[in-house]
Specification:
By secondary structure, the chain is of the alpha/beta class. It has helices at residues 3-26, 59-66, 81-90, 114-120, 169-179, 203-206, 226-255, 283-286, 314-321, 340-345, 412-420, 427-434, 462-474, 485-489, 500-505, and strands at residues 34-40, 69-75, 105-107, 124-129, 135-137, 150-151, 186-191, 262-268, 287-293, 303-310, 357-362, 377-382, 385-390, 440-444. Strands 6-4-7-1-8-9-2-10 form an eight-stranded mixed sheet, sandwiched between helices. The structure holds calcium ion.
Length: 526
């Protein structure tokens, strides 16, 4: 860490402490802020009104952005539910979390989460909906852990479609507020199940009043047709459901006079559940919406910040604003860096010069490859460039064709992409989504935001690769030290699906509820 960085950090912390003491002296509210962390399931960057999107309406996120900060370069280090959530809960990259780099893992007891730490340090913590998962998380004594706080899930409501959860998230948040002791700050995790699949086909039009022509652009990795556009609108309807509950939560906080001293963070765990997005390492896999509001402390609200921020920055942010030193928490050492200095700077655009890149990657997502192997990737996004290194290019990137490409949820769009393989002139859709890849991939995000034209080989990437590998080495990534097989060997915690490929090959009955039967390629694919 350079001297300049230390100085900026120290100044930001001093300023924060000064503001905290001023505030404590001038108001009856506790100095320590409340925290509302709203995380959607599978919502991609750009799909919100605040980002200029016209086919997804998100008045609540837009409000948070207008009265706070809208981030334009927020990334999860890995585009899949459980490992993404593991990173944001611990402040460490997936490759620093042992088994928790994988989806459906046994979460190692040694990694404490920020809600667990806040709970030990005087915060009242609760959650509704989806916390960390899917997977198994037990403490050293074998007791189930509450990774995101104590569940508040009692209230239910009739959802807009049968595919949307019955959880009345906002009502459960009200129950939580009623339960929170008045003299204690709180932290609440709103884990919406939307817009995770399945969707009610056609509901975007039938129930959302949307039109196929509302979509200004279909990404270049999928065919542009009615089925795909409908799928996108159905996704939009689910995003709007998540946003509506957020709006009710903000209104409830306002009614109780709690909004001003609540740090509100709105984001998602990974990109949309479409081929080439969720479960991959392309830009749309990890680039996520992020808006942050804290009326008492964020200077110059209504800003747009272009710094590169990572999900591993959330945990250190929450602990810092709560006034808790990391070393007091018993959490494993942090890799992320607090965002509080951005809150306090008042600046828009690029705020902190060192925040000019993020690291991303992937280990095992779903089963379906021989021996339950994953598809290991590490990558870096810097400026307009995204560089990916695929460590095992002889494996199928989205999962084996004969076992249904299980890294990609079944969907109308997946079906269209799979069909394209056999349609003259359309095979490129299948190739970019499911085909084999070389070890190195380089994309220019300015000219190719959908990451369909690999420039590696045509353009140099040595500098990016060196920076990526240097930083991974400093972070003790086993993959860099030649011990990457550790990740492949961690057992899948979903015992029914373990050795899916082997069972399939032996003719045993297997079931993957998250894909369609037609996703399994009956004829060998080369
Ligand atoms: Ca997810």
């Amino acid at each position: 860490m350079g001297m300049k960085k230390i100085t900026t950090l120290t100044l930001a912390m001093l300023l924060l402490e000064l503001l905290a003491s001023l505030h404590a002296a001038s108001a009856a509210q506790p100095a320590r802020p409340n925290i509302l962390f709203a995380v959607a399931d599978d919502w991609s960057y750009g799909h919100a009104g605040a980002y200029g999107c016209v086919w997804v309406n998100t008045p609540s996120l837009d409000r948070v952005a207008r009265e706070g900060i809208l981030f334009t370069h927020a990334y999860t280090p890995t585009g899949k539910c459980a490992p993404s959530r593991a990173a944001l809960l611990t402040g460490r990259n997936p490759w620093q979390l042992k088994a928790a780099a994988n989806h459906w893992c046994y979460f190692p007891a040694e990694f404490k989460t920020f809600p667990e730490a806040l709970g030990e340090q005087g915060y009242f913590t609760g959650m509704t909906g989806k916390g960390w998962g899917p997977g198994v998380a037990k403490d050293a004594a074998g007791k189930n852990r509450q990774m995101a706080g104590r569940p508040f899930d009692k209230r239910q409501a009739t959802p807009p479609t049968a595919q949307i959860a019955r959880n009345d998230y906002a009502a459960n948040f009200t129950d939580f507020l009623d339960a929170a002791p008045k003299d204690q700050p709180w932290c609440f995790w709103y884990g919406g199940f939307e817009p995770h699949r399945g969707y009610e086909f056609g509901s975007g039009i039938a129930k959302g009043g949307k039109k196929l022509s509302d979509i200004d652009r279909v990404p270049a990795c999928w065919p542009d047709n009615e089925a795909v556009r409908n799928d996108m609108l159905d996704y939009a309807l689910e995003v709007e459901h998540f946003d509506r509950h957020l709006g009710r939560m903000l209104a409830e906080l306002e009614k109780r006079g709690l909004l001003d001293n609540t740090l509100v963070v709105v984001t998602s765990d990974n990109g949309m559940p479409f081929p080439h997005d969720k479960g991959y390492a392309y830009n749309d896999s990890g680039h996520l919406p992020l808006a942050v509001m804290w009326k008492n402390r964020i200077l110059n609200p209504g800003r747009r910040v272009d710094d590169y921020v990572s999900f591993i920055d959330f945990a250190p942010t929450f602990l810092q604003v709560a006034g808790i030193a990391w070393k007091e928490t018993g959490m494993a050492p942090v890799t992320g860096r607090s965002l509080a200095e951005i809150f306090m700077s008042g600046k828009a655009g690029r705020v902190i010069p060192e925040r000019d890149h993020v690291l991303i990657g992937k280990e095992r997502n779903d089963v379906g490859r021989p021996h339950d192997w994953g598809y290991p990737i590490r990558g870096i996004v810097k400026g307009d460039l995204l560089y990916l290194h695929n460590f095992e290019p002889s494996r199928w990137p989205g999962g084996n064709p004969e076992t249904g490409y299980l890294d990609t949820d079944g969907s109308p769009t997946k079906t269209e992409v799979l069909k394209s393989r056999l349609v003259p002139g359309q095979k490129h859709f299948w190739e970019v989504c499911f085909g084999m890849r070389p070890a190195d991939q380089l994309f220019n995000l300015r000219h190719d935001p959908d990451c369909v034209s690999n420039l590696a080989g045509k353009e140099p990437f040595d500098m990016l690769k060196r920076q990526l590998f240097d930083e991974l080495e400093k972070q003790d990534d086993p993959r860099l030290a030649g011990n990457g097989n550790l990740f492949d060997a961690y057992p899948c915690a979903n015992t029914a699906d373990r050795d899916f490929y082997g069972k399939f090959k032996r003719g045993e009955k297997v079931k993957a509820g998250w894909v369609n039967d037609s996703d399994f390629e009956a004829i060998p694919v080369d």
